[in-house]
Structure formats: structure tokens, C-alpha cells
Amino acid sequence: MLAFQRFLQQQAAAAAAEEEDHEYDVLVEQLVQRVAEAVLVGDRREALQQLRDLLTGSSGAKAQHTFGTVGFPVMLHQVRERGEGDAEMLQMALECLAASVGGGEGGASGEAAAINAQQLARTPEALPLLLALLEQGPGGVSDFYARYHTLQVIRGLAAMAPRQLQEAILGAPLGMTRLMDLLGEQEVLRNEALLLLTQLAGGSADLQKLAVFEGAFDRLFGIIREEGLLDGDIVVQDCFQLMAALLRGSPPNQLMFRETGFLAQLPTLLRLPADTGLGGGAAAAELAPQKAANLVAAMDVVLALLPPAGADPAAPVCASAAENRQALLQRGLLGVLEGLALQRGGAPDEGVRAQALLCLAALVGGNRLQQDQLGALSIAGSGGGPPQPLLQAVLQAAVAGSSAAEQLAADRLLEAYCAGNHAGQAALAAPLLQAGASPSPDSFAGFLLLSLGRQGSLEEVAASARAAAVLSHLLGAHPSMRQQLLELRISQGPAATAAAPPWPNGAASFPGSPSGAPLMAVCASHLGLLLTKLGGQPASAAAAAGILRLLLPWLHACPPAASAFLRAVAQSQPFLVDSIRGSNACRGAAASGHPLTRGMLALLLGLCASYAEDTPGIPTQAQLLGAIASQIGQEQYQGVLDALQQHVAAVTRDAAAGSSSHALFAGGPSCSPAFAGFLQTLVAEVRQRASGGPPPPMALPAPPPAPAAVAAGLPLPPLQPPAAPLAPASAPGLQPPLPPYAGSASHSPRSAAHHAAPPPWVPPKPSTPSAAAAPAVFNPTAAPTAGAAASRSAVPSLFPSSPRGAAAAPPAGPTHSFPVPPRPIAPTAPPPAAALPSSGEVQQLQAALEALQRENERLRADCASLTDRLRVNGSSHMHAEGEAAAAAADAAAARQQLAAAQQAAAEAEVAAERARADAQTAQAAARKLEMDLEDLSAAYSNLDAHAGSLQSQIEQLERDLAAARQRAGAAGPAGQPQQGGGSGGGGGVSEEEVQRRVEAARQEAAQEADEAMGDLLVCLGQEEAKVARLRERLQSFGVDVDELLADIVAAGDAGEGEDLL
Asked: pTM, whole model, 2 decimals?
């Protein structure tokens, strides 16, 4: 009964809502009909006022649908008729249009507004009519409010139907000119025009060029100067934002900006005096919020001129962006940005510091010279502290910055410094791997190690994750970097010691490192916490993305790292499958709900399935692929990868288009364009593997000797004979040895701490001499005993939703034989007589026993011979093999250096030849340009001479007019006035005739001068376009055009001097 009552109440509420909507529809139709058909002007004005109040009121969204259907033709008619001469009716009609498309102050911006905007934009006469209202003169309107509401209508269309509006403006005669003229209008109209132009310029290259052609840069810098530069109000910020929108992704506009001298003003504009808060310190005043916003907007203009921060160094750089960067560097922008970001603590505003760091990243990325210069800089500490390396300050900002934007920008700067800079990476990574037992926070390596060991709350784990993201930039320092990181141990902070998970006991300490947890285990533990216990907090997604940024390139094509990660995950709560599905312990995790982090987790599982080694204690590749297929599902897994691909494609597209930094600092997980390209490569590889393709090619494992000692040039430890033989796997009370920690160079499966050898035991004397020399043999490939099988099949579960032990045991590895002593036979009491077998059974058992003894003796003899051969060969060749391997490595390194030197020499020779050819081409082009300029000068001289002759004619006509007036004055008293055009009298010309001739001569001269000037401007424009293309072509080849032109001018001056002599 209660359910039936609720159903009736719902039906009644739906009927009431429908009735209310119907009432609004009827009311709107009635008001529109009154506006269209009322005879009296007062009735129409009253209907318009009611309609405006209805659309701009609280219930305006309900009336928008009906108004868009029946109201547009009537309102456009009112606009066309200019309100029938009534300015108030015109204003109300425009207010109704603005409210219907979401552009007015009370207009709703919902679905109805979007539909109405699309419909109005498709109306052929609507946009030309609105643009005509903005025209100055008879074609437009002079009423301020009418023009203001017209801009509001156009702004609503720009927000809801930008493409249609852009096409209409491009198709309308003088459409952009009318909008640009508004920048010189009253302040309110100017501000609305700034916002409208910013909306329009963002998505149309043609509109960007038209706005610049109409003098946008001159007008914007004029407004900025009028408002007081950076001390101005929000209008200055709007001007900078429009300037960045006009420059972003438009090389022609960037060329105009650079050649007209506006680019040279940016470093001076950004350089702040010391008393405004720049440089930090206790006495520095805080920046005003609007001044900080103006600074951020000005640096957004710098970002629009430069390549994107964090771009792939192998990707081609736009020639215009490269020239802009070179010009900004020559004008000292690097020092200005360094002061804003880091010098003495940087500017006292976190947004300004973050934007300056991002500009530094765009300025040095892919430029080896600037990378080296940045690495050698030192800055003064905040509060008068001692100077420190700039990279150290950047690391501190990346890990412990005051805001997420500053941390992200500092990370992008470190990535830009390390991109393509292997020498810089090696310089930062060398002390990291050789840090002492007490790393100092005053060094780059020490601060990074201490940050990696922070544990406890979400803030501490997030700081460790940001340090892991910084460490990912150093993985390309040298080929063995990933292998050496497997040996690195991290000392944990005191806040996290009690909560630290049990780490694998089989890992050995890195030489000279503090005793702590392996780095891989720390990363796995932190990632598990961020996906389970701390996963419900929004900030956990960005922290998880930081750890995944380290793990993905670390595990890629590195089987020891993949195995170490799986082994580390097995020590804590499993999370791989649940994190992708968002189930069980990972339900509600923020990382599982974001397409970037969820896709990176799917890639992490795919890399484990592609590169995991076939060793005991971890799942095999087949088990991991089976978990993807059975517990996640191929369709869902591929869907996660598709969402990741779409996300990174959007990142790449925004970087190519030069998007603003506001989207980058919006919050949440993000990735640079270079890392987005790496993710695209991983998606293709993992997708093929997950769909049943062949495993990817893997690099050969490192040789058994310690790679750290070999890399450091230390002598290898001498080979020792094997210790006491191991007990058989089937011996009671013993477990098979734990697998060594992946990448641990100093670990041995015979470690005395964990695998102590049993006490020596002397076997009984064999019956034959051959049997005495052959110890017993255990073959792992044979059928294992119950204990061994149980220990091998106990694979750590990474899939908590499946029952433990359900996965198949990993396939057996290569066959090896281990000498073990035979098991002693303890004396036993004789069985009772009732249990003795018969004589036939005894004979059968005796025959079987003899056969087994013969087979055992044969196997012992084979094992003894193989053991002797191995000992002889091993003792004589193992040391030689180590020396040969070291010599081969040195020879390979020398060959690589020689090849690199030869390649560099060849490239230098090719570059020199190209430069010589470019110089010759430039000289020829310069000579042609000089001749063209001489022709233009001659044409201008001819035009000047023609203008002089016309001026002479005008002066002669004026003298004739003066003489005619004198004659007319002399004849007047005599009673003989000259009649207009008569031939009698003295035969003179009348004053009207003379004025007519003078006016005709002036018009003819002005027309000829205008035509000649137009031809000259066309020629000058063509020649300037040629000069611009030639300059761009020469600068792309690295030729200094200014120096070349100076040489040509000097040569021309010298030639003229010789001619004079």
C-alpha cells in the first residue's frame, strides 16, 4: 500500500511539473505573439519587458526552449528595425537574445542555451546583423547599452557555438575590424571585447592572423601601458591572455611579434625591482594578488612563444619557437626567470614561482648548452642563507614545494634538464649510488634518498612518490642504472619504522649504503598503501602516478626488476588485479578511478606478465596472463588501455597546440608529452602481449659477478671452492633455498645468515671403488617429493579474488645437478615373524633392489665424472673469463667512443659544408634583395617626382585663380562683371571655373598619388614577405642574418667610397 502511495505521489509530481512547463510555454508564446502583432508601441514594449524578466529570472531555463522555437524571428525583426526608433525596445530585444543563449547576466548556460545558440548561429541573417550593430557610423547604433548587450549575445554564441561564430566573422565584411575597433571604445565595451576576442582567437588560426593584421599587438601594449603595466587591474591580465591566445600555435604571428620588437620588451616587463617582493627575504613585501595574476599571465605569453615544457627531445622543434627561445635568451630571460622562481626563495607567490619554473623548463628543454648552463648555476638561499646549487633548490621545490603547481613545475624543470642530457644524468646519479651511511640533506643525492624513505601519513608517502618521479628522470644515466637501483637500500624515517612491512630477507645491502629496505620494496609498499589504506583520499591518485612513473620505465625490458617487484608485492597485501578492477581492498581508490593512473596500473601488470622471470616464489608469465583473462577480462583490460590512450593523446595534442598552463596546474595526475609518448609505446607492446602475442625480446641477464664492483673498476673476489654440500630438498626439516633478490650483486644462495650448511657427515664406505667416488645426485627436474612440491607450488598470491594455490606451478627451469651426501640408513628392529614376506616375494624384491643398485651406481659414476670435469674447467677458466669479460667491456666502450667521435666528425663536416652552401645562398639572396630594394627606391623617387610635378600644377592653378580674382575685382567697379564662362570682355576665366579646375586637378593628383602609393605598398608587402621567408629559411640553417646584412651594407658603403674616389 505504501509503495502504491509513493507511485501515485511521483505521478502527481510529474504531472504538476509537466503542467507548469506547459504554462510557461503558453506564456512565452503569448508574449512573443504580442510583440509581433500588437498595434500600439506601448503594448509591444510591455510584452518585451515581461519576456525579458521571464528569461532572466529564476525560471528562465524553463522558458528558453519555447523562446528558441518561436522567439528568434520576432527578436531579430526588432533588431533589424532598430526597435522602430525606440532604443529601449532594441535593448530589451537584445537582452532577450543574450539570456536565451546564456550570454546575459541572468541567462542560464544549460542544455537549452546550447541548443538556442546553435540555432541562432545557423540563422543566416543573425550574425551579420549583430556585427552591423557594432559598426561606428550610420550602419551601427550609438546607444551604449545596445552595443553592450550585442557583445553579450556574441559572447554567448562564442561559448556555445564557437565554430559557427568564427565562420560568420570570417565571412562578414570587416567583421574582425569592427571587433578590433572596440578596443578603443569606452572601458566597459573594451573589456567585453577583450574577453570576446580571447574566446574567438583560441581555435581559429585565420582569426588570429586577422587580429594581428588589424594591429592587435600595438593596441594591447598600449592598453597595458595606460593601465600601469604590471601594477594595473584585471584589464592587464586580460590583455596578456589575449596576447597569448594570438601567439599560441601561430608561427606567422610569432614572427610579427618578434620582428616588431614586442618580444624584446618581455624580459624587461617581467624584471621586478627588489622592493616589490622579488628575491624573498624578511623585508620583502608580499605581491598584490592582481599583480601576481598579471605576472602569471605575462609568463603565459612567454610559454606561448616557446616549445612545450617536457617535450620529447627527439621530436622536431618548430623553427619559430627555436628562434623565439634564442631571442629571449639573448635578452636575459634566463636570469629573470631564475630570480622569480628560486633566487632567495623566489617571488613571494606560489603561482608566480610555479609559472617561472615552467618557463625555465620550456627554455632549457632540448637545448644542451642551456642545460649545462643551468646545471652550473648557484643561487642565494632564502633569508640570507649560503648559496646552493640551482638543481638542489629545484629538487627541494619538486619534493617539498608549497603547492602542487610548484611541485609539478619543478619536476618538469628537472625532466627538461635530464632529457637527452646523459652527462647531466650521470653526474646526478653517481653520488646517489655511492651515498654514505648518513646521507646529507644538503646534497642532491642525500636529499633524494631521505625523501624516498619518508613514510607514514599521506603527506609523507606523497613526498616519497614525488622523489620517485624525480628518480625516474635519472634512469637513462647509463645502461646498468636500473640494475644498480635494484641493489639500493633506503633508510626509513622514524615515523614509518613501526609501520614498515616485512622486507625480503634475501636482499643484500648496497656497498656503502645504510641498512634499510630495498628501493623496489619501498615503492611496492607505498603503491599498495596508496591503492588500499590511503586510496580514498583524492591526493593519493597523483602520488600513485609518481611511483608508477618510476616503476614503468624501470620494469620495461628488465626481467630482474619485474621479478623483484613481484617478490616485493608478495610481501604485502596483493593489489594488482583489484586496483584495475576497483574491487575488494581497492574499492573507492582515487587511482582506480582516474584513466591515467588506472591505465598505468594495467601497464604495470602487463609488464610483469611480459618480463617476469621463471623463478620460484613469484607467479609465472602464464599465470599473470591467465589472471588478466579470467579475473579482469580481455574486454575490460583492453578498455582500460583504450582510455589511457585517449588521455595521453589529449596530452600530446594539447602540448602540440601550446595549451595554457592553467590546464596543467588544474590538479590531479598528469604526465609530460615525453612520458605520454613512452606510454603510447608501452600500450602497443602490452596490448599485443595480453592478446596472446609472443613475449617481447628481453636483454640477456647480467653476469654473475657483482655489477657494481665491475662498474666501479674494483677487482673481482677470488673464486672459492664450494662449501659443504647442501642437503637434499626432500630431507625432513629443511626448505629449499629462497630465490635471490633480483639484481642483488652481493647475494649468494649459500648465504651463511639464512642457508647455513649442515654439519659434515661422512658417508658409509661404498661397496665398490666406483661407487665410493660418486656422490648422490638430486635433479630438480625429476619428480619432487611432497615437501618440495608444496614449497614450489606456494606462489605468493597477487590475485586475492582467486583461491590460493589454484594457479599451476611454474614450469621447471634448466636442469642442474647438485652433489649431496647419501641419506644414512638408521638401524631398525627386525619385524615380527607374521609380517615377513614369502620366499617368492623376497626374491622379487631382491632382484628389484639389485637393479636399482646397478642404476644408482651408474648414475653416481656419471655424476662423479661430470663433477670432476666441471671442477677442472671451472678452476682454470672462470678467472680468465672474468678478465676476458672486463677486457671485452673496455674494448667495446673504446669502440663506442671511437664510433661516436667519427660520427661527430662526419656530422661536423656535413654541417660545415651545409653552412658554406647556406652562406653562398644567403649572399646571392642578399644581393637580389639589395637590387630589389634599389628598384623600390627608384620607384619611390619617381613617385616623389610625380607628386612634385602635381604640386607645381596645383600652385600654378592657385596663382591663376588669384590673378582671375584680381581681374574680376578691377572690372567690377567699371560695371563689366564677368559672366560665368562668357567669351566677351577681356576673355578671362570666371572664378567658379577656376575653382572647378583646381578641384579637378587636386582630385586627379590625389587619385594618382593614392594609386601609386597603393602599388608601392603592395610591392613593399611582397618584398617584406620575401625578406621574412628568406630570413626564416636562413635562420633555420643557423645563419646569423643580421651579421650577414651588416657585412653586405659595409661592403656596399666601401664600394660607394671607392666610386667617389
From this structure: 0.64
